[in-house]
Amino acid sequence: MTQLLLRPVSARSAALTMLLATHPPVLTAAELVTGLEHLGFTENATRAALSRMLTRGDLVRQDAAYTLSDRLVERQRRVDDAHRPATRPWQGTWEMAIVTATGRSAADRAALRAQLAAMRVAELREGVWTRPANLRRGWPTELLDISQCFESRPLGDPAALAAELWDLDSWARHGRQLLAALPGTTDSPADRFTLVAAMVRHLQGDPLLPAELQPADWPGDEMRATYDDYLATLAAIRS
Q1: Pick from 54, 153, 201, 219: CA 20 to 30 A from residue 72's CA?
Q2: CB 145 within 8 A of CB 186
Q3: Which residues pair with residue 123 across a beta bridge?
Q4: What is the spatial distance between Cα 98 and Cα 181, in angstroms, rounded to a whole number?
């Protein structure tokens, strides 16, 4: 665990992770207390964290239960997209967006970069964004308003282009480290929870390439299966 330098989980982040993993994201106080007790948090610590999260606007009371605020429901959607990506068979084409608008502020440019990175699109050069056309989703309206969007086919090796756009070796290496560390955490529920939470964060950086462009031993699917198994464990603990 120390080699991976994983951040310790607070009561707030543990409660938030449990809600993000629940569909719909609604849990009673008793369910959250039971789940966090398994991780070593006392009932008082859990209830104090829930109170602070209500005050900060992270949570909303729903009858006798808690649910995520609208802002965090959007975060849940991003987590779900990384966990169960909507893909389509890849035909060898790539999506490309060329930003044509001028005079945009630095803040607008930074916001666009963040949005496109969240959509798993990489910047080939300034203002030119691309990725394999294997995801079932369109371009956001605000991008269509400031750019020209195409489907294209690279003349060179598409696997080499993918490796240029994303640091695939580094991402895969860290993913395999997380998976290798998991069997040693079975006696520590808190460590296991921390490790799985780190996997969820890491999956949000998966470029979701078609299988033809993934390096050998790509750990994405195994990490998703591990997360599924852990969700079943969490559900059993709360019930």
Answers
A1: 219
A2: no
A3: 129
A4: 42
Element (H, E) at 11: helix 11-20
pTM of the predicted model as reported, rounded to 2 decimal places: 0.85
Tokens of 94: 């790539």
* Relative orientation angle of helices 11-20 and 70-83, to the nearest 10 degrees: 70
Single-letter code of the amino acid located at 42 = T
- What the block records as the tokens of 23 is 């569909």
Domain boundary among 17, 47, 76: 76
Report the alpha-carbon distance of residue 15 to residue 69 in Å, rounded: 13
Report pLDDT digits (tens) over 93-105: 999 999 988 888 8
CA distances from 170 to 103, 151, 204 (A): 36, 28, 14
The answer to whether residue 186 sits within a structural domain is yes
Do 4 and 178 form a contact (C-beta atoms < 8 A)?
yes
